[in-house]
Design a protein that fits this description.
The structure is a single chain. The protein has helices at 17-29, 51-82, 98-106, 129-135, 164-177, 201-208, 226-237, 259-267; strands at residues 4-8, 32-41, 86-94, 111-115, 140-143, 155-159, 182-189, 214-220, 241-245, 248-251, 254-257, 271-275. The chain folds into two domains: 4-143, Rossmann fold (3-Layer(aba) Sandwich), CATH 3.40.50; 155-275, Rossmann fold. Helix 3 (98-106) packs across helix 4 (129-135). By secondary structure, the chain is an alpha/beta fold. The strands form two sheets. Strands 3-2-1-4-5-12-9-6-7-8 form a ten-stranded mixed sheet, sandwiched between helices. Helix 2 (51-82) links the parallel strand 2 and strand 3 (86-94).
Length: 276
């Protein structure tokens, strides 16, 4: 069940797609929605910490504080109009500690909703989808910045490779899957000989036993093309959501993503539910 949802509020000149989508999810599940905006100071090396730097920090912080307040106000207005049970808060943190703070917060919710990072756009937003994916232990919905509509579940694409992460993603996505009209299970294989192994057939049977309408598809692609194959398949099928395991790890606060995960997060055009 999904009854408690977190959404990272876009701070600055960002798309509201993730907030609007989160509102539609909360309404569909009759869930409580919490919006969180972060206030942080910029990182300034100690070697340049002088009067000018102090003034810059104060100005920057005031700018972030104002933008966060505006994001919270906009969120509160939107949830009030939607008739949702909702709360909001601003959280303060040093920039270096923000990842840890965000992941600690996400662990107290059934689901986190974050927006895709908009390429080439200056922003005060520093919450990355990878932060929630690798640190929360909970499923993450990543919403494309171009998303206009709310949640729609006519057709969902499940990516299956037999891995633990993929199995976790299917389990986490079950509240969405039982609401989906049609489900496609996609297995992307690395060779023609692998077609005989049918790695997705068993999971398709499993989902069918939950009274879910499932079609199984397999495609051959090399390692570099798996992410693009997933996105192309979603476009061809008219999928409203992709469910997949997220691959990679964090190292010294630097996220190292698997190729397919990186490709999907960079070029996604539909909402993606990921678990790690």
């Amino acid at each position: 069940m999904i009854k408690d949802i977190l959404v990272s509020l876009p701070v600055g000149r960002l798309s509201d797609s993730s907030v609007n989508y989160a509102i539609s999810v909360a309404a569909a599940f009759n869930a409580h929605l919490t919006g969180v905006a972060f206030v942080h100071e910029p990182f300034v090396p100690g070697t340049v910490f002088d009067g000018a730097a102090t003034g810059f920090i104060a100005t920057y912080r005031a700018q972030v504080e104002k933008a966060a307040k505006a994001a919270v106000t906009k969120f509160e207005d939107a949830t009030r109009r939607a008739g949702l049970s909702a709360t909001s808060q601003k959280l303060e943190s040093a920039l270096a500690d923000l990842d840890d703070l965000f992941t600690q917060v996400t662990r107290r919710f059934d689901l986190s909703v974050v927006g895709q990072i908009e390429p080439g756009k200056e922003t005060l937003e520093v919450v990355l989808p990878e932060t929630a994916l690798f640190g929360s232990g909970r499923p993450v919905l990543v919403v494309p910045y171009i998303q206009k509509a709310g949640m729609k579940l006519d057709r969902t694409l499940i990516c299956w490779d037999g891995s633990r992460a993929a199995a976790r993603a299917i389990g986490d996505a079950m509240p969405f899957l039982v609401r989906t009209k049609s489900i496609d299970v996609l297995s992307v294989m690395k060779s023609e000989t692998a077609r005989n192994e049918l790695p997705g057939a068993d999971i398709a049977h499993h989902l069918a036993r939950h009274n879910l309408k499932v079609d199984f598809k397999h495609i051959v692609a090399n390692d570099q093309d798996i992410g693009n194959t997933i996105l192309s398949s979603a476009a061809d099928l008219g999928s409203d959501m992709i469910v997949m395991g997220g691959y990679g790890h964090s190292r010294l606060r630097e996220f190292v993503l698997g190729g397919a995960t990186r490709a999907v997060l960079n070029a996604m055009t539909v909402t993606v539910l990921m678990s790690h």
